[in-house]
Amino acid sequence: MSIPEKDGIELIQLRGETIAAKPENGIMPIHDSNCVVRLQVDDSRANLKIFMAVNVFEEILEYSKQDISKELGGVLIGEYSRENKAEFIKISDFLPAKHTENDGAHIKFTPEAWSTIDVELKAKRFWNKRIVGWHHTHPGWGVFLSEDDMFIQRNFFDLSWQIALVIDPIKNKQQIFVWNEENIVKTKEFYFYASKDNAQETKSIYATEGIKEVAEKVNNENRDTALSANSLNKLWLTGIAGFFAGVSLVWMIWKI
Fold it and tell me: pLDDT tens for residues 172-186?
Protein backbone atom coordinates (compact mmCIF):
# COMPACT_ATOMS: atom_id res chain seq x y z
CA MET A 1 0.00 0.00 0.00
CA SER A 2 1.48 3.36 -1.04
CA ILE A 3 1.71 6.17 1.53
CA PRO A 4 2.83 9.82 1.22
CA GLU A 5 6.46 10.50 0.36
CA LYS A 6 8.97 11.51 3.00
CA ASP A 7 12.01 13.60 2.01
CA GLY A 8 11.30 12.80 -1.64
CA ILE A 9 11.36 9.02 -1.10
CA GLU A 10 8.31 6.98 -2.10
CA LEU A 11 7.21 4.73 0.75
CA ILE A 12 4.97 1.67 1.01
CA GLN A 13 3.36 -0.19 3.87
CA LEU A 14 4.35 -3.87 3.95
CA ARG A 15 2.76 -5.99 6.69
CA GLY A 16 2.63 -2.98 8.98
CA GLU A 17 6.20 -1.87 8.26
CA THR A 18 7.11 1.24 6.29
CA ILE A 19 9.83 0.63 3.68
CA ALA A 20 11.17 2.40 0.61
CA ALA A 21 9.37 1.31 -2.55
CA LYS A 22 12.25 2.13 -4.84
CA PRO A 23 15.67 0.46 -4.96
CA GLU A 24 18.65 1.82 -3.10
CA ASN A 25 21.87 2.59 -4.92
CA GLY A 26 24.25 -0.35 -4.93
CA ILE A 27 26.94 -2.31 -6.78
CA MET A 28 26.15 -5.59 -8.49
CA PRO A 29 28.37 -8.51 -7.41
CA ILE A 30 29.50 -8.85 -11.04
CA HIS A 31 31.07 -5.39 -10.68
CA ASP A 32 32.31 -5.91 -7.12
CA SER A 33 36.03 -6.70 -7.01
CA ASN A 34 35.51 -8.53 -3.70
CA CYS A 35 33.10 -11.06 -5.24
CA VAL A 36 33.36 -14.13 -7.41
CA VAL A 37 30.28 -14.54 -9.61
CA ARG A 38 28.99 -17.47 -11.62
CA LEU A 39 26.31 -16.98 -14.26
CA GLN A 40 23.80 -19.83 -14.15
CA VAL A 41 21.89 -19.27 -17.40
CA ASP A 42 21.67 -16.40 -19.88
CA ASP A 43 19.57 -13.44 -18.79
CA SER A 44 15.88 -13.55 -19.71
CA ARG A 45 14.63 -10.43 -17.90
CA ALA A 46 16.89 -7.50 -18.60
CA ASN A 47 15.43 -5.13 -16.01
CA LEU A 48 15.99 -7.32 -12.93
CA LYS A 49 19.10 -9.34 -12.22
CA ILE A 50 19.11 -11.95 -9.46
CA PHE A 51 22.16 -12.74 -7.34
CA MET A 52 22.21 -15.40 -4.62
CA ALA A 53 25.03 -16.16 -2.19
CA VAL A 54 26.17 -19.70 -2.93
CA ASN A 55 26.18 -20.63 0.77
CA VAL A 56 22.54 -19.50 1.03
CA PHE A 57 21.58 -21.65 -1.95
CA GLU A 58 23.28 -24.66 -0.34
CA GLU A 59 21.51 -23.90 2.96
CA ILE A 60 18.13 -23.84 1.21
CA LEU A 61 18.87 -27.12 -0.58
CA GLU A 62 19.74 -28.81 2.72
CA TYR A 63 16.68 -27.37 4.46
CA SER A 64 14.46 -28.55 1.60
CA LYS A 65 15.55 -32.15 2.23
CA GLN A 66 14.75 -32.15 5.94
CA ASP A 67 11.17 -33.37 5.51
CA ILE A 68 10.02 -34.65 2.12
CA SER A 69 6.60 -35.72 3.42
CA LYS A 70 5.29 -32.15 3.24
CA GLU A 71 6.00 -28.74 1.77
CA LEU A 72 8.54 -26.59 3.57
CA GLY A 73 9.04 -22.89 3.04
CA GLY A 74 10.83 -19.75 4.06
CA VAL A 75 11.68 -16.21 3.02
CA LEU A 76 14.62 -14.88 1.04
CA ILE A 77 16.37 -11.95 2.67
CA GLY A 78 18.60 -9.42 0.95
CA GLU A 79 18.79 -6.13 -0.90
CA TYR A 80 16.83 -4.51 -3.69
CA SER A 81 19.20 -2.11 -5.39
CA ARG A 82 19.99 -0.23 -8.55
CA GLU A 83 23.29 0.33 -10.31
CA ASN A 84 22.84 3.17 -12.77
CA LYS A 85 19.53 2.15 -14.40
CA ALA A 86 19.84 -1.60 -13.84
CA GLU A 87 17.81 -3.05 -10.98
CA PHE A 88 18.89 -6.15 -9.10
CA ILE A 89 18.25 -8.16 -5.97
CA LYS A 90 21.00 -9.70 -3.88
CA ILE A 91 19.93 -12.66 -1.73
CA SER A 92 22.26 -12.90 1.25
CA ASP A 93 20.18 -14.74 3.86
CA PHE A 94 17.37 -17.24 4.28
CA LEU A 95 14.82 -17.64 7.07
CA PRO A 96 12.92 -20.93 7.36
CA ALA A 97 9.23 -20.28 8.00
CA LYS A 98 8.09 -21.62 11.35
CA HIS A 99 4.48 -22.26 12.41
CA THR A 100 3.25 -22.76 8.84
CA GLU A 101 0.25 -24.94 8.08
CA ASN A 102 0.35 -27.66 5.43
CA ASP A 103 -1.43 -30.86 4.54
CA GLY A 104 1.42 -32.36 2.59
CA ALA A 105 0.61 -30.74 -0.73
CA HIS A 106 0.08 -27.13 0.36
CA ILE A 107 1.76 -24.59 2.59
CA LYS A 108 0.18 -21.63 4.35
CA PHE A 109 1.99 -18.74 6.01
CA THR A 110 -0.05 -18.19 9.17
CA PRO A 111 -0.16 -14.92 11.15
CA GLU A 112 2.07 -16.62 13.72
CA ALA A 113 4.55 -17.52 10.97
CA TRP A 114 4.67 -13.90 9.77
CA SER A 115 5.04 -12.65 13.35
CA THR A 116 8.04 -14.93 13.89
CA ILE A 117 9.59 -13.80 10.61
CA ASP A 118 9.12 -10.14 11.53
CA VAL A 119 10.78 -10.70 14.93
CA GLU A 120 13.79 -12.36 13.29
CA LEU A 121 13.97 -9.66 10.62
CA LYS A 122 14.33 -7.03 13.29
CA ALA A 123 17.37 -8.83 14.67
CA LYS A 124 20.61 -6.89 14.25
CA ARG A 125 21.97 -8.82 11.27
CA PHE A 126 18.86 -8.06 9.20
CA TRP A 127 18.27 -4.47 10.23
CA ASN A 128 19.05 -3.05 6.75
CA LYS A 129 17.66 -5.88 4.64
CA ARG A 130 14.35 -6.73 3.00
CA ILE A 131 12.26 -9.74 2.12
CA VAL A 132 13.06 -10.13 -1.57
CA GLY A 133 11.08 -13.31 -2.13
CA TRP A 134 10.10 -16.69 -0.77
CA HIS A 135 10.96 -20.35 -1.12
CA HIS A 136 8.96 -23.54 -0.83
CA THR A 137 9.30 -27.18 -1.77
CA HIS A 138 7.38 -29.56 -4.02
CA PRO A 139 8.72 -32.97 -2.94
CA GLY A 140 8.37 -35.24 -5.95
CA TRP A 141 5.87 -33.03 -7.83
CA GLY A 142 8.18 -30.93 -9.99
CA VAL A 143 8.80 -27.19 -10.00
CA PHE A 144 5.80 -24.97 -10.76
CA LEU A 145 3.46 -22.55 -9.02
CA SER A 146 0.10 -24.02 -8.05
CA GLU A 147 -3.01 -21.88 -7.64
CA ASP A 148 -2.33 -21.69 -3.90
CA ASP A 149 1.28 -20.67 -4.60
CA MET A 150 0.07 -17.97 -7.00
CA PHE A 151 -2.25 -16.67 -4.27
CA ILE A 152 0.69 -16.38 -1.87
CA GLN A 153 2.82 -14.63 -4.51
CA ARG A 154 0.07 -12.19 -5.46
CA ASN A 155 -0.92 -11.32 -1.89
CA PHE A 156 2.31 -11.47 0.12
CA PHE A 157 5.11 -11.06 -2.42
CA ASP A 158 3.44 -8.73 -4.87
CA LEU A 159 6.23 -6.19 -5.37
CA SER A 160 7.84 -6.23 -8.81
CA TRP A 161 11.21 -7.32 -7.42
CA GLN A 162 10.00 -10.15 -5.17
CA ILE A 163 10.64 -13.64 -6.51
CA ALA A 164 9.60 -17.23 -5.80
CA LEU A 165 12.06 -20.12 -5.61
CA VAL A 166 10.55 -23.61 -5.93
CA ILE A 167 12.65 -26.69 -5.15
CA ASP A 168 11.83 -30.35 -5.68
CA PRO A 169 14.27 -32.08 -3.30
CA ILE A 170 13.39 -35.54 -4.63
CA LYS A 171 13.86 -34.83 -8.34
CA ASN A 172 16.65 -32.35 -7.56
CA LYS A 173 15.08 -29.55 -9.60
CA GLN A 174 14.85 -25.83 -8.93
CA GLN A 175 13.06 -22.96 -10.63
CA ILE A 176 12.82 -19.21 -10.02
CA PHE A 177 9.68 -17.24 -10.85
CA VAL A 178 9.56 -13.47 -11.28
CA TRP A 179 7.04 -10.76 -11.97
CA ASN A 180 6.65 -9.70 -15.59
CA GLU A 181 4.20 -6.81 -15.38
CA GLU A 182 1.01 -8.50 -14.10
CA ASN A 183 2.16 -12.04 -14.81
CA ILE A 184 4.34 -14.46 -12.86
CA VAL A 185 6.77 -16.24 -15.17
CA LYS A 186 9.81 -18.51 -15.08
CA THR A 187 13.19 -16.90 -15.38
CA LYS A 188 16.55 -18.28 -16.46
CA GLU A 189 18.47 -15.34 -15.07
CA PHE A 190 20.40 -16.33 -12.00
CA TYR A 191 23.84 -15.71 -10.57
CA PHE A 192 25.76 -17.28 -7.68
CA TYR A 193 28.18 -15.03 -5.86
CA ALA A 194 30.72 -15.50 -3.10
CA SER A 195 33.38 -13.48 -1.35
CA LYS A 196 36.88 -13.85 -2.79
CA ASP A 197 38.15 -14.01 0.79
CA ASN A 198 36.20 -17.22 1.46
CA ALA A 199 38.05 -20.06 -0.27
CA GLN A 200 35.38 -22.65 0.53
CA GLU A 201 32.56 -20.54 -0.91
CA THR A 202 34.65 -19.67 -3.96
CA LYS A 203 35.21 -23.38 -4.53
CA SER A 204 31.51 -24.13 -3.99
CA ILE A 205 30.44 -21.54 -6.52
CA TYR A 206 31.76 -23.82 -9.26
CA ALA A 207 30.91 -27.15 -7.59
CA THR A 208 27.29 -26.51 -6.60
CA GLU A 209 24.74 -28.12 -8.89
CA GLY A 210 22.19 -25.43 -9.52
CA ILE A 211 19.73 -24.17 -12.06
CA LYS A 212 22.31 -24.11 -14.87
CA GLU A 213 22.91 -27.86 -14.63
CA VAL A 214 19.18 -28.55 -14.58
CA ALA A 215 18.64 -26.34 -17.64
CA GLU A 216 21.57 -27.94 -19.47
CA LYS A 217 20.17 -31.40 -18.73
CA VAL A 218 16.79 -30.40 -20.17
CA ASN A 219 18.46 -28.86 -23.22
CA ASN A 220 20.52 -32.01 -23.76
CA GLU A 221 17.42 -34.19 -23.45
CA ASN A 222 15.59 -32.00 -25.98
CA ARG A 223 18.60 -32.13 -28.30
CA ASP A 224 18.82 -35.93 -28.00
CA THR A 225 15.10 -36.21 -28.74
CA ALA A 226 15.49 -33.96 -31.77
CA LEU A 227 18.47 -36.00 -32.99
CA SER A 228 16.56 -39.24 -32.54
CA ALA A 229 13.61 -37.86 -34.49
CA ASN A 230 15.95 -36.59 -37.20
CA SER A 231 17.63 -40.00 -37.43
CA LEU A 232 14.26 -41.72 -37.78
CA ASN A 233 13.28 -39.27 -40.53
CA LYS A 234 16.52 -39.95 -42.39
CA LEU A 235 16.03 -43.72 -42.01
CA TRP A 236 12.44 -43.42 -43.31
CA LEU A 237 13.54 -41.35 -46.31
CA THR A 238 16.38 -43.79 -47.06
CA GLY A 239 13.92 -46.67 -46.96
CA ILE A 240 11.50 -44.93 -49.31
CA ALA A 241 14.31 -44.07 -51.73
CA GLY A 242 15.50 -47.67 -51.67
CA PHE A 243 12.01 -48.94 -52.34
CA PHE A 244 11.52 -46.77 -55.43
CA ALA A 245 15.02 -47.63 -56.69
CA GLY A 246 14.12 -51.30 -56.43
CA VAL A 247 10.86 -50.78 -58.30
CA SER A 248 12.69 -48.89 -61.08
CA LEU A 249 15.23 -51.70 -61.43
CA VAL A 250 12.49 -54.35 -61.70
CA TRP A 251 10.71 -52.23 -64.34
CA MET A 252 13.86 -51.88 -66.41
CA ILE A 253 14.60 -55.64 -66.25
CA TRP A 254 10.98 -56.43 -67.23
CA LYS A 255 11.23 -54.12 -70.27
CA ILE A 256 14.43 -55.84 -71.40
Answer: 999 999 998 889 999
